[in-house]
Every structure is written in C-alpha cells, then in structure tokens.
User: What shape does this take?
Amino acid sequence: MKQEYQDIILQECGAKALPVGDKIQTLWSGYGQIVRVHLDGCDRPSVVVKHVMFPKEAEHPGGWNTDLSHMRKVRSYQVETHWYQNYSTNDGCLMPASLAQCSYGDKQLIVLEDLDVVGFDQRRTSIRDAEMRACISWLAHFHGIFLGVVPEGLWPVGTYWYLESCPDELYDSQLKAAAGESDRILNECRFKTIIHGDAKLANFCFSESGQGVAAVDFQYVGEECCRPPGGNRGETA
Assistant: This one.
C-alpha cells in the first residue's frame, strides 16, 4: 500500500504504525482488493480497507466486460463512498462505521470499522432460522428507515439487476418480451424506499450466536419499490 494511503489511515485512526495487513478478498472482476490492516498505538486493533483500482482491461466471470459494465462498476464505488459519507446508520441495521475515504485518479480508498472486532466475526454459507430472521429484521429496519427518502447521490434504481443496467445479459426470449412492462410497473410504483442492492448472504456478518447481524457492500444501494405494512393486494408494489 502506498505511503500516502498509509498516512491517511494513520491520521484518521490516530495510530502510530501499520505493522501488517491481511488480504480478505479480491474485488469483483479484479477491481482491487479488501484488506484488514492491523494498527499499533491506538484503541482500534484493526480496520478494513476497500482499495479500489480500476483495471485497464477488466475480466468478468460471465464474460460481460463491456464498457457499460465497466462504467457501472466505477459509478458503484462512487455511490458506496457517498453512502458511507451521507447515509450510513446503525439504527436497527448495523453496518461498519466509515472512518475515511479518498480518491486518487483511478484509485479509491474506503477505510471502515472492522466488524470482526466489534463482535460480528462469523460468516455463513448456509443459515438457520434464527440467522434468517436476523437478516430479515435487518432489511425490514433498513427499508423502514429509508421509506420515502430521495436517494440523492445514490442509484436512482437500486440493485444491479434491472432492465437498463443489464441489456447485454438478457438472453431468454420470454423474459425479454416481458421485461419492458415489468420494468415500467416497478418504476411507477407508489411506495419506494432505499434498498441495499446486493443483500446476499456473503454480504452479512454474524455474531457468534447468529442472532446479531451487520451488513457490508453498499455499491448498489438505491431506490426501489416497496409494499408498506397493510398494503392492499391489488396495489402496485
């Protein structure tokens, strides 16, 4: 890691040294990596750093490495940075505290609280009922908090998988025929909220008991449809 990045982490965390870092994972399509950086001389033993580096030639596992796909990924990291700066909350839906963000040309750095340190050090590839309920509760609080909130600086339509974002991936002829009308109904719904955008199991961190959960990865957070409690069955949702 460049010295300028290390200096930012040291300054924001009040640390004296960064003795070692451990790679957690590579970002999707080779757009950088996530590392755990250990700290000396402060009250935080470690932080998690999302180090984004836009490649000259990206590789997508599904072969969808188009210009549209690349620009959407670039925008996704800008959205995530904006999210942590302006919307992040722990009111019933825990997420890592944002400690610092910076951009240098085609590189971005997001420094986050290490959820392992605060008790959410468990990852799951399958879950039990209690853990499923914890995830649903997290999402319910999240959607409730942001019901009716205008997603300024976020995606105008949350998630990656909607019609305008993925025209290159829509191969099934029946789905393609129905996609336009389905997209219109969703976009014109009465009730909208901000959604996580990629609420899969890999993006939830669990407490040891499994009854507490926090979420990460807010690259595709934005507005989407929602049905409030008590909504009529016939109402567009």
The chain has one domain: 3-225. The chain has four helices and nine strands.
